[in-house]
UniProtKB/TrEMBL annotation:
The protein, known as: uroporphyrinogen-III C-methyltransferase
Family membership noted in the UniProt record: Belongs to the precorrin methyltransferase family.
Source organism of this protein record: Alkalilimnicola ehrlichii (strain ATCC BAA-1101 / DSM 17681 / MLHE-1)
Metabolic or biological pathway, per its Swiss-Prot or TrEMBL entry: Cofactor biosynthesis; adenosylcobalamin biosynthesis; precorrin-2 from uroporphyrinogen III: step 1/1; Porphyrin-containing compound metabolism; siroheme biosynthesis; precorrin-2 from uroporphyrinogen III: step 1/1
Single GO BP term: cobalamin biosynthetic process
The protein's enzyme class: transferase
Domain Tetrapyrrole methylase, residue spans: 28-237
NCBIfam families given in the database record: cobA_cysG_Cterm, PRK06136.1
UniProt KW keywords: Cobalamin biosynthesis, Lyase, Methyltransferase, Multifunctional enzyme, Oxidoreductase, Porphyrin biosynthesis, S-adenosyl-L-methionine, Transferase
Keyword Metal-binding: no
InterPro entries: 4pyrrol_Mease, 4pyrrol_Methylase_sf, 4pyrrole_Mease_sub1, 4pyrrole_Mease_sub2, CobA/CysG_C, Siro_Cobalamin_biosynth, Uropor_MeTrfase_CS
Keyword Plastid included in the entry's annotation: no
Length: 297
């Protein structure tokens, strides 16, 4: 792949940082890989990936993004299947610290944005404690990526004046929406990590004040050629999800803005009458777009 030019910031920090330093210590690039489509990577992410000596990545980083890393660069998979969960985070921190101490440039690639439900803060604290230098590259988080590709504007002057990103998981991995006020008028809710609990989530949202007619969409494998969107209401969505083989990862979007998808679903080609939009991979390989619309409320 053609090398991207190095853009210097006003302090010239890029030259100093990316060129290594006199102490022989390496550094860590905490890079957001976005939700799947490699074209959503920032230029900075691509450049740092091309400079890295080793890439440490999660399960949610798409194959298409990993394909941008040169074949001779070491890749270390640290997804859940790679480690026993209890020790996983400590082990990841140790790997990054060890590699940086060997003088390597370590790209720590995380799905979406590292600072949105990505434990990016925890990893940087460990690096800071160990005296390792780091940089952070933001990524397109699943909420904005999936919403854009599903044709659901998260805010809209007539339907939603605010948006809230919520995790459906606590530290122990259990569903807990706590005592949050989730019935705020004109607010879109985006629930991460809730796919396995759609049933409970929809009941919980109603218990917390949302009407059963509130539109909801589940976006599965958003921004990829396998994207699927299931629509319903808080009352109907659980049975619609149960009827379908949905896969993962998936994200729930709750709010009146979901209705706009009927006209705006550009990626699947159902909103405006356009043909499905090919992803970069499909365009390059000539594979037909496989984006599916599953259900319309
Ligand atoms: C541990 S969180 C990581 C979020 C990530 N840091 C971000 O900013 O998107 C994982 C959750 O993100 C959501 N997610 C990530 N990628 C997705 C995708 N391509 N389609 C749908 N949901 C996705 C799912 O809710 C998944 O359970």
């Amino acid at each position: 792949m053609k090398e991207l030019p190095v853009y210097l910031n006003r302090t010239g920090r890029d030259v100093l940082v990316d060129g290594g330093d006199a102490t022989g210590l390496g550094e860590v690039y905490l890079v957001g890989a976005g939700p799947g489509d490699p074209e959503l990577l920032t230029l900075r992410a691509v450049r740092l990936l091309q400079q890295a000596d080793v890439v440490v990545h999660d399960r949610l980083v798409s194959r298409a993004v990993l394909d941008l890393v040169s074949e001779d660069v070491e890749r270390i998979f640290v997804g859940k299947q790679g480690f026993r969960d209890g020790h996983r985070q400590r082990r990841i921190n140790d790997i990054m610290i060890e590699k940086a101490r060997q003088g390597m440039r370590v790209a720590r690639l995380k799905g979406g944005d590292p600072f949105v439900f990505g434990r990016g803060g925890e990893e940087l604290e460990a690096l800071a404690n160990a005296g390792i230098r780091f940089q952070v590259v933001p990524g397109v988080t699943a909420a904005t990526g999936c919403a854009a590709y599903a044709g659901i504007p998260l805010t809209h002057r007539e339907h939603a004046q605010s948006v809230r990103f919520i995790t459906a998981h606590t530290r122990r991995g259990r569903l807990d929406l706590g005592r949050q006020r989730l019935d705020v008028a004109g607010e879109t809710l985006v629930l991460y990590m809730g796919l396995t609990h759609v049933d409970q989530l929809c009941s919980e949202l109603q218990r917390l004040g949302q009407p059963e007619t509130r539109p909801v969409a589940v976006v599965v494998q958003g921004t990829t050629g396998h994207q699927r969107v299931i629509e319903g209401t808080l009352a109907t969505l659980p049975s619609r999800v149960a009827e379908t083989t949905v896969g993962s990862p998936g994200l729930l979007i709750v709010g009146e803005v979901v209705r706009l998808r009927r006209r705006l679903a550009w990626f699947e080609g159902t909103g405006t009458g356009n043909a499905p939009f090919p992803t970069l991979v499909q365009a390059l390989t000539g594979t037909p777009a496989g984006n599916k619309r599953v259900e319309v409320a």
